[in-house]
Amino acid sequence: MQCPYCQQTMRRGKATLERSLGGKLLGEGNLSMLRFTPKRGERAELLDAAGTREAHFCDDCGTAVIRGVLADEQVQRCPACNETNPPNYEACWKCGAPL
Asked: Who's near 64: CB < 8 A, 6+ residues apart?
């Protein structure tokens, strides 16, 4: 996947929420939630403490892209390698095959 800001190749991985060692020692609960809050409109819950989402990270500019829950319903599967691709891609990000 290309970074939407600097167009460099992003590393693929997983996004998770992890409690710090201090939080574990102090007995803080698992109330962590990663949310997106726009200037206007409703906020969206991106990731909870028990969840793991596919993500991409750009080493050049630090941009992270976390795949949302709704993305699972909108992906395209590559006919050549079966990799998941965003709905607007015309070619597979992994192997380059047309979608």
From this structure: 15, 55, 56, 57, 58
- Is there a contact between 46 and 34 (Cβ–Cβ < 8 Å)? yes
Q: What is the largest CA-CA distance in the chain?
A: 52
> Residue 89 pLDDT more than 70?
yes
pLDDT above 70 coverage of the chain, percent: 78
Q: How far is CA 54 from CA 26, 28, 67, 97, 98, in A?
A: 30, 26, 5, 21, 22
Q: Give the number of other CB atoms < 10 A from CB of residue 28.
A: 12
Helix, strand, coil percentages for the chain (3-state, nearest 5): 10, 30, 60
